[in-house]
Amino acid sequence: MIKIGIVDDHAIVRSGLRQFLSEHVDLRVEGEAANGREAIDLVRNKEIDVLLMDLSMPGQSGLDALAMLRAKAPDMGILILSGYPEEHYAINLIRQGASGYLNKECEPAEIVEAIRTIALGRRYLTPTVAELLAQQLNRKDDAPPHEQLSEREFQVFLKLAKGETAGDIAKSLSLSVKTVSTYRTRLMEKMSLSSNSDLTYYALKNRLID
């Protein structure tokens, strides 16, 4: 029996996934969460084999929670189920420890296939993600600027692009304001950008935020 956790801020999505997964005899939903912080509590209190997690959620997002979830449950599979296309987030997230990445427009059967693959301790790569990984290996120097950021830099970049202040970011990521400012300086240099509005424009243009 594969034990599953569902993390999504929309109750109707969680309900639909729970109903769909319950139709498969080898899958059992152990619990649900509405954001990254609740996901960490869920993993702390329940035995989860595969966590099915959205990215964009209020409070602590899936991206913010990923590193902490990995630290708390290194053997647990984490399948990202996001509304964003693979080319925008998949490579960064797989590099940061996600076991697989699916767009919410995928066929429901593919979610089950991905869960079963990940439960075996393997990664689930769609043909699109596999191609993106291959392209990145072949032309590292041509990778988009945001793919050259570290995990923390990428988190800070997205929050700045959404208009969050250094104080807000420091609080949500448990960092000092000075450390956030250091990350901001570093990512600005890497991306050759000069202001927060440049960051927002870049993120919107590359469809990293709505």
Percent in strands: 5-15%
CATH domain class name of the largest domain:
Alpha Beta
Count the E strands: 5
* Structural shape: globular
Please count the helical segments. Answer: 10
Provide the structure class: alpha/beta
Helix content percent band: 40-55%
Identify the CATH architecture of the largest domain.
3-Layer(aba) Sandwich
* Biggest β-sheet description: 5 strands, parallel
Average the pLDDT over all residues and give the rounded result: 88
CATH level-4 homologous superfamily of the largest domain: Response regulator
Keywords: DNA-binding, Phosphoprotein
GO biological process, one term: phosphorelay signal transduction system
Modified residues (4-aspartylphosphate): 54
Domain Response regulatory: 3-119
List keywords for this structure.
single chain; globular; Arc Repressor Mutant, subunit A; 10 helices; Rossmann fold; DNA-binding response regulator; alpha/beta; 210 residues; 5 strands; 2 domains; 5-stranded parallel beta sheet
Structural overview:
The chain is α/β, with parallel strands linked by helices and 210 residues long. The protein has two domains: 2-136, Response regulator (Rossmann fold), CATH 3.40.50; 145-206, Winged helix-like DNA-binding domain superfamily/Winged helix DNA-binding domain (Arc Repressor Mutant, subunit A). The protein is built from ten helices and five strands. Strands 2-1-3-4-5 form a five-stranded parallel β-sheet, with helices on both faces. α4 crosses α6, α7 (151-161) packs across α10 (196-205) and α8 crosses α9. It is globular. Pfam families: GerE, Response_reg.
